[in-house]
């Protein structure tokens, strides 16, 4: 099997190169892993337009802070 050949060759390498192989394997897994976000819809700017309403007096001073102004 290919796994045994890989392990045999890996064992013959010094520790520093084994660490490089590990980094490369992690890189390959991250690069070629199937994307889990492909099933999710991409976010679209302005999708909630008109859904959020602010009160007309939003910027007006609050009664509780009259003493401080």
Note the run of SSEs as H and E: HH
What is the alpha-carbon Rg in Å?
29 Å
Helix content: 40-55%
Query: Number of DSSP helices?
Result: 2
* Amino- and carboxy-terminal Cα gap: 79 Å
Describe it for me?
It is a single chain. By secondary structure, the protein is an all-alpha fold. The protein has a domain at 1-35. It is 41% helix and 0% strand. The chain is built from 2 helices and no strands. It is elongated, with a radius of gyration of 29 Å. It starts with a helix and ends in a 37-residue tail after the last helix.
Keywords:
single chain; 69 residues; mainly alpha; elongated
What's this model, at a glance?
The protein is mainly α. Helices cover 41% and strands 0% of the residues. The termini are far apart.
Set down the secondary structure blueprint.
Layout: H1 2-11, H2 15-32
